[in-house]
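Support request, please re-run this one:
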Amino acid sequence: MPHLITHHRFTVDEYEQMIDVGILKHDDRVELIRGQIREMSPIGDAHSAQVSRINFWLVTTTAGRAIVNPQLPIVLTDSEPEPDLTVLHFRPDFYRAGKARPRDVLLVIEISSSTLDYDREVKAPLYAEAGIPECWIVNLVDGCLDVYRRPTAQGYADVQTLTSGDEIEIPGFSGQPLAVSELI
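Re-run finished. Output below.
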């Protein structure tokens, strides 16, 4: 008779304790997803450049009105993902009192080449379940931008694919569009 192997699921508190006591290092390329500690893909040159490029536009566009976090965690119920970029509601303490929660998030951005399926099938639904209002996946494989809006417990209800001729705005920052060609 086969024996089923079960996996221990970590809580966010247990995960953070592992970081606090040094079991996991702050520079380890891992994140907590649905209770599992998962290794993240290495960051290649194209990915890194795209994070910097989009970060520059976000910071310029939201200056003094939002906080842009590159590759920092968001605390969810059973996860602590590290999106490539997050646009947060402005707080004078810059989140010193604690990591961002879903209510703090205006937008998450994942930049995808080797992780495209994972970002679409695991991370976007995770963000939707948490109620994060908007998620962008910068699809470096197909040269387009997948835009996810209207979160539900089953995923985002509105999914659009934008191409180089389209424009997009950061949620809550109307009147400052960016050509999608600048993102992809």
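Residues 45-62 form the longest helix (18 residues). Residues 43-182 form a domain with the tt1808, chain A fold (CATH 3.90.1570.10).
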